[in-house]
Design goal:
There is one protein chain. The chain has helices at about 10-25, 70, 90-100, 115-120, 140-145, 155-165, 175-190, 215-220, 225-245, 245-265, 310-315, 320-325, 330-350, and strands at about 1-5, 30, 60, 80-85, 170-175. Strands 1-4-5 form a 3-stranded parallel β-sheet, with helices on both faces. Strands 2-3 form a two-stranded parallel ribbon. It has 13 helices and 5 strands. The protein is globular, with a radius of gyration of 20 Å.
């Protein structure tokens, strides 16, 4: 089970899971009509496409608001539970950029630097019950199914951390993504070929807000529960890599980087990401934030060797298109995307 958190490099990891599941003919539990399990509603096993009581699946990996008891009903008792976290300040910056146009609370923030204005007085622009407000505070806590409008000294936060530590066999860190993959393949007895990757859903650098030390401190204070969660699993991650062995880890990361570089040279035209407007194949165009085109993608080389052709295309295929290729009918996701675009256009006419 992969608990897919928001804005944590989870789309890159999802591509790895899709390829592994396809290669080994594993049974995915997919959503019905969309790319998530009715997020932000709590997960229920009845949300799985074609669910029949008693069914058992190999992989559950789409966005959801986690409910451990419901998820457990879909998986064998010895299933591995994996998730990924990211520094909460960087996560807030990314979520604010990506979702802001879909969060009405932020529409009235004055000035060009809306994130800075928000962080200097978040309570002025935040109401816990407002539409999509969960993107603005302790998003990790929310994704894991807990109250996100909570202070870090609340006793419930420590209980949440204990529950998650008991449930999840491995917690990856976005800041140490390659090291995380090496630990993952060791945990699951995978190979380096199983975890090769190209970064997906990356933003153009000019769209990233650089938080000053003051604003970073404010972001961490505002997301204090997430910061406690992150610090706990950051410590357990470093303990795990120490047990694995730093020298061994360096060797295996170097091998993963070498293999990724080989595949990038073999697969990617120009060897790098390109702006959305420069992507030649619409089937490789990532889903974009509302009213923006800041998510980068890839063009494939025209002369990809036949032995790499299928792998190359899968490695650069965005989540939405890959789900469609795996047989998921995303009619609701696509319809909602059109509706949001119309709403955004109407709002900008005011």
């Amino acid at each position: 089970m992969f608990m897919k958190t928001h804005k944590t490099a989870s789309s890159t990891f999802l591509n790895i899971l899709f390829r592994f599941g396809e290669k080994h003919n594993l049974h995915f539990a997919f959503p019905d009509g969309r790319n998530d399990f009715r997020y932000p509603s709590a997960f229920r096993r009845s949300q799985v496409k074609g669910y029949v009581p008693g069914q058992c699946f190999n992989i559950v990996c789409n966005h959801m608001r986690f409910d451990a008891r419901e998820v457990a009903q879909l998986l064998p008792e010895d299933a591995a539970y994996v998730t990924i976290l990211r520094d909460p300040a960087a996560m807030l910056e990314s979520a604010f950029h990506y979702y802001r146009s879909a969060i009405p609370l932020t529409w009235g923030i004055p000035g060009d630097d809306k994130l800075s204005a928000f962080l200097r007085d978040p309570r002025a622009y935040y109401t816990p019950s407002a539409y999509n407000s969960f993107y603005l505070r302790n998003l990790l806590m929310f994704d894991f199914g807990f109250d996100n409008d909570v202070e870090p000294d609340d006793p419930g936060v420590a209980r949440v951390i204990r529950d998650l530590a008991q449930r999840f066999h491995l917690v990856l860190l976005a800041e140490h993504f390659e090291e995380s993959l090496v630990l993952l393949k060791d945990t699951l007895c995978w190979t380096t070929e199983d975890v090769v990757f190209f970064q997906l859903n990356a933003r153009r650098s000019s769209s990233v807000s650089r938080l000053s030390p003051e604003l970073r401190a404010r972001a961490l204070a505002w997301n204090g529960a997430d910061w406690m969660l992150y610090r706990h699993f950051n410590a357990s991650f470093w303990a795990r890599r120490a047990a694995f062995g730093e020298e061994r880890l360096r060797r295996e990361v170097a091998e993963l980087r070498r293999r990724n570089a080989e595949l990038r040279a073999a697969c990617v035209r120009g060897g790098a990401t390109v702006e959305a407007a420069q992507i030649r194949d619409s089937g490789l165009l990532p889903w974009q934030p509302l009213g923006d085109q800041s998510i980068l993608g890839y063009n494939l080389r025209e002369d990809v060797e036949p032995e790499y052709r299928e792998l190359c295309r899968k490695m650069v295929t965005p989540e939405i298109q890959y789900l469609s290729e795996l047989g998921v009918d995303l009619w609701l996701t696509k319809l909602w995307g059109r509706i949001k675009s119309v709403i955004f256009q109407l709002r900008n006419l005011k």
